[in-house]
């Protein structure tokens, strides 16, 4: 049982990183980005294509992350140009449109057959409870944690962080006091896009990497973000790991196992019910 | 409009046969080409374009050497994009509008399941180039040339327990909706043949899941062999995951993993040793049985794959049935020819092909197993492994 849980951790690391990106974008620019994982997958596919064409792995990864960042920045540009005055519902809907567009573009650009994925750290790094955790998985978990921490600290203690927070709290006021709102928000998009590409690259070697499957990693990532109530980066990180653990443990129980892909939905509903309970109870009274 | 076409075709065929024995060749010329259909997933999530392309190469060659009694074969291939609605439409168009005399060389995820009842109703018979869904092996009107995933599964288990002599045989399958009961029957067939039971059986893996939790479980259970149904990309993920978990088991996959890419990728990752079932003479081998097939595929520029072998065989057998027909070639006479077809032995298949009047067909019961060694697939069972009937 513990072993299965540990086996799920690697996936959990990637969910966590994507969940952290979703929380970051939501907090800073007020958009629930349904296309977060697809943007990451796009960056990851760029890496695969470069690698297949003879580019060494390290520069390919950097360029892939840059591609993810660029795609996200483009979406951020669209958002700040045409939808800066729209409500969160409209903006989130735009990201769903972006998700569908990305699927369509990726099928055209990369084809629909799964890619073979390079795993630079193949082989086991260390063992936990009899389960070997590959270096890629370990890097994913540690990386996600580091990003959650660093971003959290950066928002609290750096000038850019303060500006970003001002921007997310009172966008118009922030702009009036001279904060370059648009540039900053596009920066947030680009950062989250690049990190997502790295997260997808970390999870890809252990999955059959077709674009649709990778893009739909957004479901567990959203569940992780919700565990952080779309506010706490640290909780989103822990939430991602927890979902990975739950999925791993579920493999142990034949009655639950076939429904593993639906577990994130269950987590989402539970979290929503729990956080909204007071509203329901208040309405009843 | 469809009905009108059928009526006029029927009237035409009727008048042609009414011309009498003396006028067969004249009537044949008047009847135009022999229309043969196929419905394949040429595009879509799981494409198999080689099967019907290979069948076309065979028909083209027959046409180039004079056709069937002077009549050319017109081969009409429809793409179902693995979409049931498109598969159903395609069958109606081919049968009702185009008036095909039969089907040969189809390869699709779901074509049989969608159209078997329609074929039965219309008296259309099909030689499937690559049968995938359970109905391909469970219909009186369809007889596939390949072993298929179900007998293939039984063959994989049989290979593990009887050839590799593993006592703890496990099976971890990707869950594909609609296939579950057929897969369970495959296991039951193995149990009936060998009297053995699986040590661990898991059918809950999603197509996009990480198999590591199941592999860890298999380790706990002490599995010596794991049979799985991964496609090309899955086989690569599996090889790496098994290596990462330090599990030295016999990994046995179905035909879908038997590709050049799998061998190369696994060699690169240092995760070799996977076995796969080849339902025909292994296409990556230099066997003389493949000489004619290889030359034709090269000439027609069809990629040489296992699917191309299936299409080639389906078309070859179909032509053989056509050649036995005396008199007009109609849907009815083609059906009769297929039903009375004597079992055909072919060097590319280990058991003779037959159609016959059974309510279900799965004539190909033979496998050759191949293994990745040094970046290449090597044949490890040079003799055909023919599944005994339970």
From TrEMBL, chain A:
Q: What family is reported?
A: Belongs to the binding-protein-dependent transport system permease family. LivHM subfamily.
CDD domains (UniProt xref): TM_PBP1_LivH_like (cd06582)
One Pfam family here: BPD_transp_2
Stretches that traverse the bilayer: 6-26, 31-51, 57-78, 90-111, 131-155, 186-205, 211-230, 235-253
> Which InterPro entries does the record associate with it?
ABC_transp_permease (IPR001851), BCAA_transport_permease (IPR052157)
User: What is the protein's name according to its record?
Assistant: Branched-chain amino acid ABC-type transport system permease component
Q: Does the keyword Transmembrane helix apply?
A: yes
Q: Name one GO cellular component term.
A: plasma membrane
